[in-house]
Specification:
alpha+beta, DUF4192 domain-containing protein, Cytidine Deaminase, domain 2, 335 residues, 6 strands, single chain
Length: 335
């Protein structure tokens, strides 16, 4: 999905050039389904191709799952694009197109993209779709320039996207280890101030809300948190009430994506899941489904039983768009 699919698409080459900006990265060894309405791109999803050993299989098992996800977006017209070698792409593209048609979704065309060229599976006109394929648009094409101007980014690969949410290293990691130890001592001192459970909960909630608001003010004005501020916020977010407070304040703004990306990359492993979920939810709200996916994957890797991570995983897995869920925000099961 994307927060801005308003660019006008006039040709197959322009549509193919736009897909990486919608996904946030250049797909490879994968299949994309792009929903279009008139000459505008509305929605895109991507799924990995089967491994090479199964390249000759006639059936592509995820086809029905992909088709069901597309149907949930309430779109009626799509283009299917396979990225990779012919023997691996063909079964996936044809099987997916068949599954979509069974669900009354019109497949305008189906393409294969590889080595800077594209081919149509459905066009038999050799003058328009020659056997050697047609060249893809260059990296500096008008459509790429327009997408970049609108703030859309196409990273070289999905691994590059995953790297954006990976733990920071080097001197920053060393400093964060020290800052985290200071935050833990500060948190222990906070607990010592509460005589009863209610006192403890009130103190954590108060300090947590203050830390979230301070972080928002900082990033809204273009700033960045110090290691100590980041570590303290990360420690407080472990409390459910603080995480929920931050979640309720999420809006699809780039400065919020930068905020939660920084917190996620800096905090120590024990504090990863809440920050990753906040980034994932913010990215999902902003229409950046690919970024949301890698953030939620990191949350689940850190804590497979984290309730909010499980919920966001299901939201993304079912391909639910924000307008299909909001204004009711995803909330954890309490217990």
């Amino acid at each position: 999905m994307t927060s801005d699919c308003s660019l006008v698409i006039r040709t197959p080459a322009e549509l193919i050039a736009m897909v990486p900006f919608v996904m946030g990265y250049h797909p490879s060894d994968s299949l994309a389904v792009v929903a279009v309405r008139g000459n505008r791109l509305e929605f895109a999803l991507c799924h990995g191709l089967p491994p090479p050993l199964s390249a000759g299989a006639e059936a592509w098992e995820p086809a029905d799952t992909v088709a069901d996800t597309v149907v949930r977006q309430r779109v009626r017209t799509v283009v299917v694009i396979g990225y990779g070698p012919l023997r691996r792409v063909t079964p996936a593209v044809l099987r997916c197109a068949e599954a979509l048609r069974r669900r009354d979704v019109m497949v305008l065309d189906a393409y294969r993209v590889a080595d800077g060229r594209w081919w149509s599976f459905l066009c038999g006109d050799r003058t328009c779709c020659p056997p050697e394929g047609r060249p893809c648009l260059p990296a500096d094409s008008v459509i790429a320039a327009e997408a970049t101007f609108r703030g859309q980014v196409a990273l070289p690969s999905r691994s590059e996207l995953t790297a954006q949410v990976a733990a920071a290293g080097g001197a920053l990691r060393t400093e964060m280890v020290r800052a985290t130890e200071r935050a833990r001592r500060r948190f222990t001192g906070l607990l010592a101030r509460g005589r009863h459970v209610a006192d403890y909960e009130r103190l954590v909630r108060q300090h947590g809300r203050d830390a979230v608001r301070a972080a928002e003010r900082c990033y809204r004005s273009g700033g960045s948190l110090s290691p100590d501020e980041t570590a303290w916020l990360g420690a407080l977010l472990v409390d459910r009430s603080v995480e929920d407070f931050a979640l309720d304040r999420v809006a699809p703004q780039e400065w919020r994506i930068r905020l939660w990306t920084d917190v996620l990359r800096r905090v120590e492993p024990a504090y990863v899941a809440p920050a990753a979920c906040l980034l994932g939810y913010t990215a999902w709200r902003a229409g950046r489904g690919s970024l949301a996916r890698v953030a939620v994957d990191r949350a689940l890797a850190a804590d497979p039983r984290h309730h909010l991570a499980e919920l966001l995983h299901n939201v993304l897995g079912f391909g639910l768009a924000p307008h299909m869920v909001l204004p009711t925000a995803p909330r954890r099961r309490r217990g």
